[in-house]
Amino acid sequence: MPTEPVPQESATGEITGPESRIAPTRRTFIATGTAVGTAVVAGTVLGTDLLTQPEAAAAPAAPSSRLTVTVNGIRHTVTVDNRTSLLDLLREHLGLTGSKKGCDAGACGACTVLVDGRRRNACLTLAVRTQGAEVTTIEGLADGDRLHPLQQAFIDQDAFQCGYCTPGQILSGVACIKEGHTGSREEISEWMSGNICRCGCYPKIVNAVQQAAGKK
Questions:
Q1: Contacts of residue 14, Cβ cutoff 8 Å, sequence gap at least 6
Q2: Using one digit for the tens of pLDDT, what is the confidence trace for 111-148?
Q3: Do residues 8 and 14 lie in contact, with contact meaning Cβ atoms separated by under 8 Å?
Q4: pLDDT tens for residues 57-114?
């Protein structure tokens, strides 16, 4: 009984023989698969950019709110996207860049401010939740050219290096003193533990808090 010839692969990667008319070559298969895959990825990544102008115009606008908040003694009335954080309100809308954006996840404390006298991570606080509140940032601590006692203590104790975390450290320290958590170095460290110093100035930061609290 005669057998059918087996297709052969040439040196160029093409298949010869009776089945070459219907069987794709490896090169053709790879090229086709690559083209299809590229088209799928492009459609997925760029699909939102392919909206027509009428479709883009019909997209609903992000909900916004009008709020009034007092920052460092100055009353501000602004309209913001409801998703705006207090940190972005301060930095992007009011130009108060002393509060730093570190982790943007509430883990480092660089954005610490006081809201109605209580410390808050500004990156985790929605701006619309501060309607009618009193907010204090690092820019609002000094009395003209006279530094706040804790600001002066940070200088006296050399309690910073790069300075990036310092605004949040100072605001947290002010609250720590006001809350009465300065009974010992260990207590200060515990109640300041939400503020990270990547330069490792923790002992000097504790010294500064003790000085401002009159314990040193």
A1: 20, 25, 27
A2: 999 999 999 999 999 999 999 999 999 999 999 999 99
A3: no
A4: 666 788 999 999 999 999 999 999 999 999 999 999 999 999 999 999 999 999 999 9
In a 3-state reduction of DSSP, which class is residue 13? coil
Tokens of 178: 């006001």
From the number of C-beta atoms within 10 Å of its C-beta (0-12, 13-18, 19+), residue 110 rates as buried
Instruction: Bin 13: left if φ > 0, else alpha if -120 < ψ < 50, else beta.
Output: left
Stretch 179-199: mean pLDDT: 97
> For residue 213, which of 169, 182, 179 has the smallest C-alpha distance?
182
* Amino acid identity for residue 30 in this structure: I
Q: Could you give the CA distance from residue 167 to residue 110 in angstroms, rounded to a whole number?
A: 7
pLDDT at position 48 over 60: no
Q: Is 135 left (phi over 0), alpha (psi -120 to 50) or beta?
A: beta
In the chain, DSSP finds a helix count (H) and a strand count (E) of 7, 7
**Cα 51 vs. chain centroid, distance in angstroms?**
29
Q: Give the whole-angstrom CA distance, residue 211 versus residue 198.
A: 22
Collapse the DSSP code of 137 into the 3-class scheme (helix H, G, I; strand E, B; otherwise coil) and give the result: coil
